[in-house]
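Dear H.,

Thanks for agreeing to be a second pair of eyes. The structure we're designing against is below in token form, covering all 570 positions.
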């Protein structure tokens, strides 16, 4: 299944971990009252009317009031063209000027600035339409607001024009359900119904909102973990929620986090594609019902996204993605195994799948910097930090175990990084190297890190997961779609076609329009899975099926060691 890392959300998940705490400053942050009023008139997808009241912002003429991206990582937002967004203050209607900010790699933000100085409180109003999605919509990060089964689910950044000034604000968020059927519920990542929280503007944007005939399940022991859905899923929602809840309890306890809460939202895609995005204290995933996903299929995705809550390095996405994605992969599996949520064989299969992902990756011999440059362009590149980070952490753990005679492990370093994150002490790549250096020696720590960054193939040490699992080397064929999917106007087209690839041999040419992209999400995991794509050249469509694999590469995996105990401690 497709996973997308979302650095913005992951960063926030930690940045706002103290958001329930009372403000320390003598002066309370300015009030920001948000009212969300969903309405689904019969036979329509409906909309959410949004009213946002700023407490005396005292803006000068020309100062920005609110902002919203036009698109974020390819996902279109509500935009609010023309006069769809209005404002007023004590002096009456407040004229706004629309402008666009300097483009960022993830998208262009639109801002609304006031044309005259403001007087008193400012009230901003707009009607949020859900995004229209169809069978041909591209899968991507879950930033858009969508209608489903008489309700709505989506991220703030897809429909909420949020304060241009970062804040923090004393937010009072309310749901007005007067136009909705009885029993309708409104949920934000930070709570259900009315929620008061001191948060920066970014948290309003990078969190989830759901309203309508929501069903939910809470963790049995407390209500720190809640799962929500609008449509009954094709899998056992209760079994799924129980698994997720146990994982959350175990992992949050491991990191010493006994306060924060977490919300999981699930929604249905009208197109073939599964994916999840982690935002503040929450994540949402979408699935394609005809694919009949199982609890087993989805729990990996869920555990990965939840594991993002705690481990975090300071620094740009390109510099630290190996850590955020690597630890999410490493700890989602390890915590589930330790909690008894994965059997030993399931754990073995899962770590082998991660190793396969790395050894079959077309980016494994690129530097991390080169892979990061292609991150937004090529979906396959988005997976680079996962496998690379995972295997590097496996290596690091093996080195620490060997050096300490089994007394210390990667856990000690990752927990110390998390402690520093919570204490707002420096916790970047330099601190990582210093902490690993203390365990295995500074030169060794630096050399292993440089190898990972350089793109030299990572070799799994024999003692990784010993004595239960032994390392086996083999020849593998790297995943190779054969071309880069690029945008040309509103079309997706083939570029950078590899002349010696299976795609080229199947007849695909540079410049061909991609009508239905080959589904890499399954083929990525299995060397024998072919892909089928529909392309168009000179106005004629054609279908090709091919095995998306390149030349042989050296690879490693694990097997159960002979005579090893049936239970193993990792
Ligand atoms: Zn991730």
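And this is the sequence the design step returned. I haven't edited it by hand at all.
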């Amino acid at each position: 299944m497709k996973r997308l890392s979302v650095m913005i959300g992951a960063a926030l998940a930690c940045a706002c971990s103290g958001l329930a705490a009372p403000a320390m400053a003598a002066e309370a942050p300015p009030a920001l009252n948000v009212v969300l009023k969903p309405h689904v008139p019969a036979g329509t997808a409906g909309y959410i009317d949004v009213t946002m009241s700023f407490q005396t912002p005292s803006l000068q003429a020309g100062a920005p009031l609110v902002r919203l991206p036009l698109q974020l990582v390819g996902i279109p937002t509500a935009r609010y063209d023309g006069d769809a967004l209005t404002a007023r203050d004590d002096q009456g209607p407040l004229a706004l000027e629309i402008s666009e900010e300097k483009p960022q790699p993830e998208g262009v933000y639109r801002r609304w600035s006031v044309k005259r100085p403001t007087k008193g409180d400012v009230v901003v109003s707009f009607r949020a339409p859900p995004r229209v999605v169809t069978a041909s919509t591209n899968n991507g990060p879950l930033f858009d607001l969508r209608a489903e089964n008489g309700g709505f689910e989506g991220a703030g950044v897809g429909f909420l024009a949020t304060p241009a000034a970062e804040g923090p604000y004393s937010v009072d968020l309310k749901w007005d359900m007067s136009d909705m059927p009885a029993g309708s519920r409104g949920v934000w990542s930070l709570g259900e119904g009315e929620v008061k929280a001191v948060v920066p503007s970014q948290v309003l944007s990078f969190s989830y909102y759901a309203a309508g005939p929501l069903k939910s399940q809470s963790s049995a022991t407390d209500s720190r973990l809640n799962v929500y859905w609008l449509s009954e899923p094709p899998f056992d929602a209760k079994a799924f929620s129980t698994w997720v809840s146990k994982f959350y309890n175990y992992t949050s306890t491991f990191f010493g986090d006994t306060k924060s809460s977490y919300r999981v939202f699930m929604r249905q895609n009208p197109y073939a594609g599964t994916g999840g995005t982690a935002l503040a204290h929450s994540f949402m995933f979408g699935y394609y019902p005809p694919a009949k996903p199982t609890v087993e299929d989805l729990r990996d995705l869920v555990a990965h996204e939840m594991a993002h809550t705690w481990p975090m390095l300071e620094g740009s996405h390109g510099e630290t993605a190996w850590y955020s994605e690597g630890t999410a992969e490493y700890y989602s599996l390890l915590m589930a195994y330790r909690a008894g949520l994965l059997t030993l064989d399931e754990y073995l299969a899962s770590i082998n799948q991660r190793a396969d992902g790395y050894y079959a990756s077309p980016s494994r011999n690129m530097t991390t910097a080169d892979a990061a440059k292609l991150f937004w362009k090529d979906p396959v590149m988005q997976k680079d930090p996962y496998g690379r980070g995972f295997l590097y952490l496996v290596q690091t753990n093996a080195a620490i175990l060997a050096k300490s005679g089994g007394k210390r492990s990667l856990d000690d370093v990752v927990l110390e990084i998390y402690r520093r994150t919570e204490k707002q002490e420096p916790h970047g790549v330099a601190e990582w190297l210093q902490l690993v250096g203390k365990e295995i020696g500074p030169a060794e720590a630096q050399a292993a890190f440089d190898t990972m960054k350089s793109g030299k193939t990572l070799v799994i040490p024999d003692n990784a997961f010993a004595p239960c699992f032994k390392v086996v080397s083999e020849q593998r064929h790297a995943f190779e779609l054969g071309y880069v999917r690029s945008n040309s106007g509103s079309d997706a087209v083939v570029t950078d076609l590899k002349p010696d690839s299976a795609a080229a041999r199947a007849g695909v040419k540079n410049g061909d329009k991609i009508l239905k992209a080959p589904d890499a999400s399954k083929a990525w995991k299995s060397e024998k899975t072919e892909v089928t794509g529909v392309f168009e050249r000179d106005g004629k469509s054609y279908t090709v099926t091919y095995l998306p694999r390149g030349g042989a590469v050296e690879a490693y995996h694990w097997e159960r060691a002979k005579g090893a105990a049936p239970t193993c401690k990792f």
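Two observations from my side: Residues 3, 5, 304, 308, 325, 328 surround zinc ion (CB under 6 Å). Residues 481-547 form a domain with the Pdz3 Domain fold (CATH 2.30.42.10).

Warmly,
E.
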